[in-house]
Each structure stands twice: as C-alpha cells, then as structure tokens.
Specification:
Length: 236
Amino acid sequence: MAWYCSGSTNTELVENLFKGGLIKDVRVKDAMLGVDRAHYSPSRPYSDSPQPIGHGATISAPHMHGHACEYLIDYLGAGSRVLDIGSGSGYLTHVLANLVTGPGTPDQGQVIGIDHITELVDLAKTNMEKSQDGRQLLESGKVKFIKADGRLGWKEGAPYDAIHVGAAAETLHPVLIEQLRAPGRLFIPVESESDGSMLGRMGGQYIWVVDKREDGSVHKEKVFQVSYVPLTDAPR
Ligand code: SAH
C-alpha cells in the first residue's frame, strides 16, 4: 500500500495518500500540502516510507504523519496548544502548526516540539527556516523547539489540547496525561509489555489514544500496531 502512495512531488504524494484513503480529512490534507517534505527529509522525501535523519532517528512515513493528525484532528483547532514529543526532523511539528495557527487569529495556537538530541533540535529549526511560513512560525513563537526529555512532557507549556509522541514509550507515562487539557487527547506508541507467554513475547508496539474528557475522566484505547524508534535516555 505504502509504495503506491509515493509521488514525484509533494503535491502528488499528498494527493495519492488522499486518493488511497490513508488521509481522509481535508484539513489534514491541506496542512500536509502546505509543508514540503523535501525541506525535512534528506532522502526520498516523496516516498511513503520512513527515512534516516541521523543520530539513529528517522522522519516517519507520510501516512503515519497523516494518521497521527487524523487521530488528533478534533483537538487541533485555531488556538489549540500542542506538544510534539520526539520532534526529530520537525516536519510533523510544522504540519501541526498549520492546523492550529490561523493567520490573524487573536487567540493564537502554539506547537512545542521536544527532542533530547541537541543536533536534532537545531536540525528541526534549520529545516523550518527553509520556507517563509516556517520562518514566520519560528519568529512569532507559534512554534518552539526545545531540548528536553520528552518522557516528562513540558510542564511549562501545559495544559495541551493535543500531545503527539513520535517515538515508542516503554509505558504510558502518566505525567503526559496530567499535562493534557480536559478535553484533550494523547497519541502515543507504546511497547506492549510481555506477559512471559509465547504470544506475550511477540509483543510489538501499539498506538494508544488517550482521552481526557471534560469531566477529567481518562479513557485509553489501543488502536493499531506500529514500528517506531524507542523513546530513550539521551545519548552521553
Ligand atoms: N516525528 C519525528 C520522529 C523522529 S524519530 C519525525 O517524523 O521526524 C523519534 C525522535 O524521538 C528522535 O528524533 C529521537 O531523538 C527522539 N527521542 C527519543 N527519545 C526521546 C526522549 N526521551 N525525549 C525526547 N526525544 C526523544
């Protein structure tokens, strides 16, 4: 499936993802059309596959970026506050910013991208500076990239309408749920814990969608299997 959805230009890639049903929401499509992946992916930018960006990290496949936005879309309005943990290349941070910042909206949204590797924090900024609207997002403070351990979230900017995690966590970190607004939603890949049985050992990673409802109650749903690089300690 992924192979068929690649393109030779950014527009072709996004249109193919839409035609293939991998992106369904027009707002997500428009937000992705607004960011040239060539500014973020050093190799094969219009291929629907993950690509290495150095430091053991990858820019996720375009369809995964699309899925993440679609699961979060109801929490991504003009003025929403978003945390993107494991921001890596900065691509998804830019797409999320397109979804929450309308030009001239008095109530401005903000996206904070967090990575624990200094070089990748710098890379994300450099990538975003390649376009005029990317430069504006940085200059206006609508997008900020911060070096920190994303497993702790970023308390200073909380509460968030939406939190995206771009690397697989060992557990569903409760601190991230604490930093959600009510209502708010967390999208996070989590390593499934082995229960010691043959089946348990096969484990794997799954996306979890965690909702904090208006009354503060928390609802967790395991939605599909994935393969992300792990959320780890910072390299020394
Ligand atoms: N959404 C990014 C994914 C990058 S790969 C993209 O599509 O470009 C996952 C990223 O998570 C890497 O950049 C890695 O450095 C980062 N990461 C891993 N563990 C982390 C941690 N504990 N805190 C913050 N970032 C982390």
